[in-house]
Amino acid sequence: MKTLVLLALVGLGAQLVDGSLGMAYGVTSTTLLLMIGTNPAAASATVHLAEIGTTLASGAAHWRFGNVDWRVVARIGVPGAVGAFAGATFLSWLSTEVAGPLMSVLLLGLGLYVLVRFTFRGLRTDRLGQPLRKRFLTPLGLVAGFMDATGGGGWGPVGTPAILASGRLEPRKVIGSIDTSEFFVAVAASLGFLVGLGSAGVNLAWAGALLVGGLIAAPIAAWIVRLVPPRVLGSAVGGFIVLINTRTLLGTDLVSLGATGSAVVYALLVTVWLAAIAYSVRALRRERAAVAAADGPTAVNAPVA
């Protein structure tokens, strides 16, 4: 019972982050399932089954708040589903000894990308309104869907920054569109795992607990997406993912540093993580000060979303 309550809280927290940042539900949830010893393919399958419900609820909430561009959803969701099915069947065929370290490496890479991307670059908004082309969204969907299924997460970490970097769609619609299109990815990945693992590969109780937490958080996240600074949240989430998956890799035969070496690595990672968050906060304050100065004296006393 304690495990189910913990998983529900994980689902709630992960969905709050995912719904407001456009990424990290699968990465966070899968990382924590791996920590408690779940088979990599089963962990991804369990998370994707829960995501069928959470992405549906999140998409509906984002649609309600006007955060969805349906053209983007259609153009990226279908190829994303194809990539996710392929990735799920591929992961199902791998042995646990190979899949475990592979998934941790993929998650670590995604975490590093999120950390660096949001800490140093923030969000690009100088090309808003220009159309996103199908020749860009189709291959992006295929790659992001495949990464999502094999890494237990990746749809948001790959898709959201790529579209944000284009600067052609406002951030809240990028997040809402990615969250909504992830429903197709979750369904396709779940079907792929069903083919590869069968129903025995999924822990229904754990999926249900993750789902309950996610359903509670989905409408809240869709509302706060206008309020939470994505730059700071991205640095915090990226650092967390890097730290947890480094811990997983240090516990395998691939990396053996001993207790002292591992402690040094953890200390360095935590220091870098805290420094990244501090840098993001300072950068955000500078950006807001610059905007206030550009807008004139009336903007100084205006509330900042």
pLDDT < 50 stretches: 298-305
**Total number of β-strand segments?**
0
Structural domains: how many:
1
Mean pLDDT across every amino acid position: 75
The percentage of residues in β strands lies in under 5%
- The secondary-structure class comes to mainly alpha
Q: Rough shape?
A: globular
- The number of helices is 12
Main location: membrane
Keywords: Cell membrane, Membrane, Transmembrane, Transmembrane helix
Membrane topology: Multi-pass membrane protein
Subcellular location: Cell membrane; Membrane
Please, could you describe this protein's structure?
The protein is an all-alpha fold. Helices cover 81% and strands 0% of the residues. The chain is built from twelve helices and no strands. It has helices at residues 2-21, 25-35, 40-64, 70-93, 96-121, 134-151, 155-166, 171-197, 204-224, 230-250, 258-295, 297-300. The protein starts with a helix and ends in a 5-residue tail after the last helix. Mean pLDDT is 75; it is low at 298-305. Its main location: membrane. It holds the Pfam family TauE.
